[in-house]
Automatic annotation (TrEMBL):
This is (2Fe-2S)-binding protein. The lineage of its organism: Bacteria, Bacillati, Actinomycetota, Actinomycetes, Propionibacteriales. PANTHER family: OXIDOREDUCTASE WITH IRON-SULFUR SUBUNIT (PTHR44379), XANTHINE DEHYDROGENASE IRON-SULFUR-BINDING SUBUNIT XDHC-RELATED (PTHR44379:SF8). Residues 12-88 form the 2Fe-2S ferredoxin-type domain. InterPro entries: 2Fe-2S-bd, 2Fe-2S-bd_dom_sf, 2Fe-2S_ferredoxin-like_sf, 2Fe-2S_ferredoxin-type, 2Fe2S_fd_BS, Beta-grasp_dom_sf, Diverse_Oxidoreductases. Pfam families: Fer2, Fer2_2. Keywords: 2Fe-2S, Iron, Iron-sulfur, Metal-binding, Oxidoreductase.
């Protein structure tokens, strides 16, 4: 052995609630959560992007907190509640943020979409009427390679307006 051969980990059984469904999968004990979600659970919404936590492609909500899943070992999430962008839709209906991203064409390659969607969703939960500066600050932890951010900021504005209209009707 030269010391550069890959070391095999132990296969473990990981139990999660993913997008509202209790699930279990066999995963390598060294897997990152994004790898376990994609390879073990077959959930494709979080993506491997930069693998350094900078881009947001791997973003999901774990136990209520936005998490860059490429920065977390899967074993540390045992028993957790994981919500991916797929799980934000309710009864087959896109969330206000998802719908606004679609209507404003605020995505191209989809690379940044999970991070942007979760950041915008969290922002609007705290502040239903954010300024453009608030929106840009909330999105700053994610990298977009295609849109130049203007369509994304417009989508968050649109989502905020739709959310406020919905709340006023109820």
């Amino acid at each position: 052995m030269t010391g550069t051969e890959p070391v095999e980990g132990t296969t473990i059984r990981l139990n999660l609630t993913v997008d509202g469904q209790d699930r279990s999968a066999a995963v390598d004990s060294r897997s990152l959560l994004v790898e376990a979600l994609r390879d073990g659970f077959g959930v494709t919404a979080p993506k491997v992007g930069c693998a350094t936590g900078d881009c947001g492609a791997c973003t999901s909500r774990v136990d209520g907190l936005i998490t860059k899943t490429c920065m977390r070992l899967a074993v540390s999430a045992e028993g957790s509640q994981v919500v991916t962008t797929q799980g934000l839709a309710e009864d087959g209906e896109l969330s206000f943020v998802q719908e606004a991203f679609w209507s404003e064409q605020a995505f191209q390659c989809g690379y940044c979409l999970p991070g942007m969607i979760f950041a915008a969703t969290e922002l609007l939960a705290r502040d239903p009427d954010p300024t453009d500066d608030d929106i840009r600050w909330a999105l700053s932890g994610n990298l977009c390679r295609c849109t130049g951010y203007e369509a994304i900021v417009a989508a968050v504005r649109t989502a905020a307006a739709r959310q406020r209209e919905h709340l006023q009707r109820d």
